[in-house]
Specification:
Largest sheet: 8 strands, mixed
CATH architecture of the largest domain: Alpha-Beta Complex
Number of strands: 20
Order of helices and strands: EHEEEEHEEEEHEEEEHHEEHEEHHEEEH
Shape: globular
Bound molecules: flavin-adenine dinucleotide
CATH topology of the largest domain: Polyamine Oxidase, Chain A, domain 2
Distance between the termini: 24 Å
Number of helices: 9
CATH class of the largest domain: Alpha Beta
Length: 332
Amino acid sequence: MEKARIVIVGAGISGLSCARHLMNQGVNLRILEKSSRPGGRCSSHKSHDDFYDHGAQYFTARTPLFKKLTEILKINNQVEELTHAIKQLSDDGSLHDLPDAHRYVGIPNMEAVPNALSVNLPIDYSTKVEAIKYAKKVWKINISRPNGRHDIIIADTLIFAIPADQMLRFDVPDCFKETLQHFKMDPCWAVMLGFKTALETSVSALRLNESEYQPLSWVMKKPDYSSGSIGERWVIHAGPRWSRSNLEMDSKQVISILFDKFSDIIDTKNFCSSGSKLWRYASGGRSHQFRYLADLSQSIIACGDWANGGRIEGAWTSGIAAAEHFLTEFKC
Ligand SMILES: Cc1cc2nc3c(=O)[nH]c(=O)nc-3n(C[C@H](O)[C@H](O)[C@H](O)COP(=O)(O)OP(=O)(O)OC[C@H]3O[C@@H](n4cnc5c(N)ncnc54)[C@H](O)[C@@H]3O)c2cc1C
């Protein structure tokens, strides 16, 4: 049995920002991450020599603190402003520019953002939290590792930085359950397509209304930072309604259906490589803005994009707010 002062579950953007803020204040902590890399939904898929951002496509920076971080990442050549014009394809087939905003992408891919945030953080990768129990003023955390080994970690404080739906599986306080049950996160099927040569289109990124262009909700040509072998890489997202109705669909069929619709909009006959990823908990929580949940009596905090309007900036800000709450209310 191992001991830790604070355990953070999840090394996505919210878990990383929370951890970094606490570490900067000298707090001793440990992060448990079930995947082998940081980033969660802000990650990239490697196919041969080519990377595809199959989760978050870009991020915006609107709040002063997050703008400051973005500036640092820019100076370090870890992010760059997205130069693509993003268009909305209206139901009548006309194209409109989305309102102007500063949008950023990771260099060479979106994984650059979590990679930068995770430097020197104590993260146990490939470590899945299976169950938690609060008793005698400590958290008992059951974990599993890839070799099938199960362990227990004891912590004074537990900080969850995972999607709301996933948190409901755990024995969290009733006051958390009451709030979390209102968050239904939407799934998203993402398809990655490689083309030998550049497609003949002036479109780089397109938002679509799922009900009109079913199943598509988003298509984007990936910025050309990769040194891979392919002429052009595109990512396509299916909308939440279609994704939810087809959770169990075979990957090849998903690729075929999404490509058919894609080629109706952007003239192309063949792709040379393809892949797909189902995000079961892609997005949600946009209308709720309380930033985090906390229960001092059981020393537990929950943060994540779902608590702060969704998206990368919301996740990052939620993690910082959760850390601040710990520093002001929990730390003794
Ligand atoms: C398809 C798609 C497109 C998107 N597009 C954009 C976009 O263009 N712009 C934008 O700003 N945002 C976008 N987003 C949203 C953005 O990716 C998220 O808001 C943000 O990454 C969420 O970060 P998070 O830390 O809250 O959660 P997550 O990224 O989900 O991180 C949670 C982490 O916890 C880990 N974990 C979960 N359960 C356990 C467990 N039991 N034990 C250990 N570890 C666990 C997971 O592996 C994961 O690493 C998109 C998301 C998706 C899926």
